[in-house]
Write a structure and sequence with these properties.
The protein is built from no helices and 11 strands. By secondary structure, the protein is mainly beta. The strands form 2 sheets. Strands 2, 4, 5, 6, 9, 10 and 11 form a 7-stranded mixed β-sheet that branches. A 4-stranded antiparallel β-sheet has the order 1-3-8-7, with no helix packed on it. A hairpin with a 4-residue loop joins strand 7 (about 70-75) and strand 8 (about 80-85).
Length: about 120
């Protein structure tokens, strides 16, 4: 069974950088894609970016293009989200997800709060 464990996040000021990690365990051979999403207070969960098992990246959220970078270390079964030039509007709970045929598993979420 696929499981995800996120780490990183916390408090930041505008302009700061943070990096998240998401460690994949169990059923890793079935995962074809991983990604990040976030949910701001009072809003729906929005997808940020995805990365396939072949390393193909897709940035879905326009507001983070050029600031956030998704990457993956297949040897360590770990996915990362490097976030630069953080803004107060980046404040949200960040979730990683892993996609296998017919299944999407979510991490527990990490709170990020960016102050002006």
């Amino acid at each position: 069974q696929v499981q995800l464990a996120e780490s990183g996040g916390g408090l930041a000021q505008a302009g700061d950088s943070l990096r998240f990690s998401c460690v994949l365990s169990g059923g890793t051979a079935n995962v074809v894609r991983m990604g990040w999403a976030r949910q701001a207070p009072g809003k729906e969960r929005d997808f940020i970016a995805t990365i396939t098992s072949a390393g193909i990246r897709n940035y879905v959220m326009d507001s983070v293009k050029g600031r956030f970078t998704i990457s993956r270390d297949k040897v360590k079964n770990t996915m990362y989200l490097e976030m630069n030039d953080l803004r107060p509007e980046d404040t949200a709970i960040y979730f990683c997800h892993a996609d296998a045929p017919g299944e999407r598993v979510w991490g527990q979420g990490i709170q990020v709060t960016v102050s002006a």
